[in-house]
Design brief:
280 residues; disordered N terminus; alpha+beta; ten-stranded mixed sheet; 7 helices
């Protein structure tokens, strides 16, 4: 039968991730916002391609397989003795989480859309598209390793994206991904010079940096992407890291639908009562 931890390891193997706080996630969002505009804001973009890259067999993480795992796995997870599944759908900012570092209890939630506010901090992972559900796990243990902040995206009941996030520097994780998948097919680096002033009035010059590493798979449309960023707040560096495996074609279609829907909601939210937008 095995212990609960062993059962967890069977279900979610190879997930080496850590706590990624809500505030840092929001700062990451703000950081990425300046990545997107065309050069002209002092950014420098450099892309290096790997001419010797061979497509990898990228399927997912452990028993979580892109385009194969059914949403019924959520029900299976909820039946484990040390998993608490709250069937209420929440916006991410309103989830009643306990401190993930002080509890061995996994708390699992479905993330809902919040059409009335469109708060970026709350809706980063909730998807404004039909037949899409996103589930968030605050804590899990896989093979004796503590893991936090897992986002599972299902479309028509099938898993199409796994996303994990880390806080801080994680060279050992970088090395693990390089060992598993080899050097990526391409690496894009975006830097932006900044100045900051500390509490004593001294001025310092730094570079914010965003790096995206991208792997393609032998399996149609399945890709992996690792992002790492270094940015400065009050002259102190903040590091973040994320890793995603997803069906790129499906996610592109969903993102396009979401962008269209958000524009509609945004244009209507000032003229339609909020209660009528909640189920949009």
């Amino acid at each position: 039968m095995g212990t609960p931890a062993t059962k967890r390891g069977i279900l979610l193997n190879e997930m080496n991730i850590y706590y990624f706080s809500k505030k840092l996630r929001m700062r990451k969002i703000l950081f990425i916002l300046w990545v997107l505009p065309i050069l002209g804001y002092g950014q420098n973009i450099e892309t290096v391609k790997n001419p010797h890259y061979k497509k990898q067999k990228i399927e997912g993480l452990g028993n979580l397989k892109i385009n194969k795992t059914n949403i019924s796995i959520i029900d299976s997870l909820s039946k484990l003795p040390d998993v608490k599944y709250d069937y209420t759908a929440y916006t991410l900012g309103n989830i009643p989480l306990k401190n993930a570092e002080s509890t061995s209890l996994t708390e699992m939630y479905e993330l809902k859309k919040d059409s009335s506010t469109l708060e970026k901090e709350f809706d980063t992972h909730a998807v404004y598209a039909k037949n899409v559900k996103v589930f968030y796990l605050n804590y899990f243990q896989a093979g004796g390793i503590d893991v936090n902040n897992i986002y599972l995206t299902f479309h028509n009941g099938i898993l199409i994206k796994i996303e994990i996030g880390l806080q801080g520097l994680h060279n050992e994780v970088d090395n693990a991904f390089l060992t598993k998948y080899g050097m990526p097919v391409k690496i894009t680096t975006i830097t932006k010079p900044i100045t900051c002033q500390n509490g004593f009035g001294a001025v310092f010059y730094y570079k914010d940096e965003y790096i995206s590493s991208y792997w393609t798979s032998e399996i149609n449309n399945v890709v992996a992407e690792k992002t790492s960023s270094t940015y400065y707040i009050n002259c102190k560096p903040v590091y973040s890291f994320s890793f995603s495996i997803f069906d790129e074609k499906k996610m592109n279609l969903i993102n396009a639908e979401q962008e269209k829907n958000i524009k509609v909601i945004d244009s209507l939210k000032n003229t339609i009562p909020k209660e009528k937008l909640k189920d949009f």
